Amino acid sequence: MSRKLVRPRQGRIFAGVCAGLAQRFGTSANLVRLLFVLSLLLPGTQVIIYLALWIIMPNEDRYLVTGS
Questions:
Q1: Distance from C-alpha of 9 to C-alpha of 25, rounded to nearest angstrom
Q2: Lowest-confidence range among 1-5, 6-10, 43-47?
Q3: What is the dihedral of CA 54, 18, 11, 5, to 10 degrees?
């Protein structure tokens, strides 16, 4: 399980949030995407959380350049 929460360059479909979460927690990116799409059927703030993670999570490239 990767300790870094970043949006990877490879394996992303839209912004890389689901791929980054899947990588962080050691699961399939398609499973995380499926769970996100299914969660859209429920009332809540899923889209706002996704957008916030898109802003907060750094790109893998930027993370590797800074070395943090």
A1: 17
A2: 1-5
A3: 70
For residue 7, which phi and psi values (nearest 5 degrees)? -90, 110
Closest CA to 20 of 40, 36, 2, 35: 2
The pTM of the full predicted model, rounded to 2 decimals, is 0.80
- Over residues 33-58, the pLDDT tens digits come to 999 999 999 999 999 999 999 999 99
CA dihedral angle for residue 27, residue 29, residue 32, residue 36, rounded to 10 degrees: 170
Helix axes 29-39, 46-56, angle to 10 degrees: 140
Cα dist from 14 to 18, 19, 33, 38, 66, whole Å: 9, 10, 10, 17, 24
**DSSP H or E stretch at residue 34:** helix 29-39
